[in-house]
Amino acid sequence: MTVTEFILLSFKHPSSSPSAAWADVTSSLKSVPGVTSLFTGPQLEDPSRHLLVINWASPEAFSAFASSESYTPWFASLKAITATDPAPVFYKAPLVSVSGAGGDDDQQGQETALRAPCTEVFVAYGVEPDFIGKTAAFAGGLSAAEIAGFHGHAYGEVSTPLASGAEGEKGPAVTLLLGWDSKEAHLEAKGKAGPISDNVHLLRSGRKEIAMVSSVEWLLPHARVANIAQVPCESQANLNGGS
User: Fold this and answer.
1) What is the spatial distance between Cα 39 and Cα 50, in angstroms, rounded to a whole number?
2) What are the pLDDT tens digits along the chain (243 aa)?
3) CA distances from residue 243 to 5, 9, 238 in whole angstroms, order as listed
4) 86 preceded by a cis bond (ω within 30 of 0)
5) Range of 63's domain?
6) Nearest to 127 by CA among 84, 96, 152, 93
7) For the chain, which terminus, N or C, has the lower number of CB atoms within 10 Å?
8) Structural domain includes residue 203
9) Domain CATH code at residue 46
10) Which top-rank group of organisms is this from (predicted)?
């Protein structure tokens, strides 16, 4: 089963365009065994925050990179350009689509959502056990309808406890990706009667908090690389020295 890693961060030295150092951090991942595709772009609501999404061929591939000799210099390069306030956020999840089988259809659904011009990233924190089922039902309601500008979805349970913010309590979390033509297409669909308004109640209970890394407009989309090998990583060290 594939696994998707999310890294949300701010740069130490913000600029109107990504730096060469950031380009080096992302481009070096293309040659890492097990990386199948990667995406990066700014959060439209807060352009100082950038999201890096890395698709791994397997959890073992993710783990192998973190335990390899090449990981330490890569992580040092990432740390050198990343601000500590707000703290960066790392998490990963195996993503599926409505079929939920974990096969080619689910991988295609995930790629469709990520390859859209704009991707909405929803995270629910402190979720109850049935929240993943509610997320599946919500996503299924959208995919079964004809929604202008909608490019598909993927969802999954975050593999390690995740907190909402530096002071939040860590707990189970669920993430949902929705692909759109644009932020405006998302807002238009959200603002009128239809599949979103009909199903949004499913996401309003069974969790403590939510966050919208919402509309991310990809600057480096479609950076697809060959699936060279399958390699491993249980947890990602954070930039403050934790593990």
Assistant:
1) 10
2) 899 999 999 999 887 667 889 999 999 999 999 999 999 888 888 888 899 999 999 999 999 999 999 999 999 999 999 999 999 999 999 999 864 444 555 566 678 888 888 899 999 999 999 999 999 999 999 988 889 999 989 999 999 999 988 788 899 999 999 999 988 898 899 889 989 999 999 999 999 988 866 556 555 443 333 222 222 222 223 333 332
3) 15, 17, 6
4) yes
5) 3-224
6) 93
7) C
8) yes
9) 3.30.70.100
10) Eukaryota
Helix axes 71-81, 20-27, angle to 10 degrees: 150
What is the three-state SS of the chain?
CCEEEEEEEEECCCCCCCCHHHHHHHHHHHHCCCEEEEEEEEECCEEEEEEEEEEECCHHHHHHHHCCCCHHHHHHHHHHHECCCCCCEEEEECCECCCCCCCHHHHHHHHHHHCCCEEEEEEEECCCCCHHHHHHHHHHHHHCCCCCCEEEEEEEECCCCECCCCCCCCECEEEEEEEECCHHHHHHHHCCCCHHHHHHHHHCCCCCEEEECCCEECCCCCEECCCCCCCCCCCCCCCCCCC
Q: Is residue 154 included in any domain, yes or no?
A: yes
Contact 111, 96 (CB under 8 A): no
Q: How many domains does the chain have?
A: 1
Strands 89-93 and 223-224: unpaired
For the chain, give the number of residues.
243
Quote the tokens at residue 190: 């959200």
> How far apart, in Å, are the Cα atoms of 50 and each of 7, 46, 67, 68?
8, 9, 25, 26
Q: Which of 37, 69, 42 is nearest to 54 (CA)?
A: 37
pTM of the model: 0.84
